[in-house]
Amino acid sequence: MPEFSDEAEVTRVAKRETRAELLARRRALTGETRAEAAGRVQAELVALVRRLRPRRVTAYVPVGSEPGGADLPRVLREALPADAELLLPVLRADLDLDWAAYTGPDGLVAAGRGIREPVGPRLGVTAVTGADLVVVPALAVDRHGRRLGRGGGSYDRALARVPVATLTVVPLHDGELVEALPVEPHDRPVRAVVTPADGMRTLDGGPGVAHGVAPHTSAGRTRGE
Fold first, then answer.
1. 52 contacts 167 by C-beta, under 8 angstroms
2. Residue 5 confidence class, pLDDT cut points 50, 70, 90
3. Does 116 map to a domain?
4. Is 155 known as a binding-site position?
5. CA angle 97, 185, 168 (to 5 degrees)
6. 180: containing domain
């Protein structure tokens, strides 16, 4: 057990150091760079939604330097079929994620740390299991689909409930798709990422391809932009 415990501590330290480096890099991005990245990420996700025509999507409200922009939920909802639904997370006291329907910018309230949450009825932690597309935040993802979050474990719990065949996508800034990340047993992989420069990319030939997502796409813009 001591060797295992030492190895686990090394991984936790590596995660903290990597997390701090990534957050510092995001804070250093200019407003112009963030806005341009948000527009491109949104265009990719909108094109994906229009191709898949999902009945239920889960996403979140990006805050600060997170890619996608604060209006990402509105943009996604407008791209969905009229009878589809977009769910956003509601952080519970135990750090698990409940879910509620997004009804528009006026239906969001501040929930601390810059986070905004929907005010509608809570649908329960299992609501994510019925999603056809799950948009997930992360600081980085490696080429095996392993993601590095902010350390609370909320999305690891949520992703553990998501069926294997469901398309899970992480919006990233350029340079945040990396070769490898430190990983712990509870970490849950994702299937695809979207970055401003390279568009949609599935990871290790995951189920995203079966959902009609090409391994490398650049929907909604030309490669030269």
1. yes
2. low
3. yes
4. yes
5. 50
6. 2-217
